[in-house]
Amino acid sequence: MKQILLVTDGCSNVGMSPVVAAAHAQGEGITVNVIGILDHGDVGELGASEIDEIARAGGGLSRMVNTRQLSQTVQMMTRKTVMQTVQIAVQKELKQVFGNGSIEALPPEKRSEVVRVIDELGETQKLQVALLIDASASMKPKLQAVEEAIRDLMLSLQARQGQSELCVFHFPGSRHGDECIMDIGWTSDLSGVHSIFTKLPMSGTTPTGPAIMQVIDFYRAEAYGKGSRDETDGMMSDYVV
Question: Which residue intervals define the domain VWFA in the entry (predicted)?
Fold first, then answer.
């Protein structure tokens, strides 16, 4: 299961629409969740609208939070979208078997078994979360909260039974480019998180759409390197419902 978790505090202002980019991600089997750390006023309202649209296009969740709520929200959204991904895959399997994709339509004894399977798969399936951090200038005072949220998310992922990996990107990647930069590759290790934020360059532009597309390219290149496979397909092959 693959996720992009975007943490931002404002509207994109460079490059392609992030809503279009999020739709591309969903088409690649990557869920896009968005957490907005926004101030009040017109900019906040516009940013909130964009954040909601990005998440809907990416098949994920969006939340507006202050820095105190960030860590808890990151963990909640990650786990909730894992369960949503599993449930969609299970319903797809049910439709193929029974001609009806609704769990509620099953007899009570079968329904309880399916719910058990969903819970188990949510804990055991491999999970990859690409954390995409808005490094525009206005985010500078909020980076300590972001760093704490990354550490707490990693601890939460380590508590899962299945393999869990996190990588970290920031955008924009340079003063003159729209690309994002990978700060930490796939890892289950907490070390190295703090070093990102001590040297992170802060820029005024917010190229959210191009950044999402580059993370999609990163996922795609990895899939080609290892042999492409949709991990949600056939995830119930070992279960009889």
Answer: 1-86, 128-241
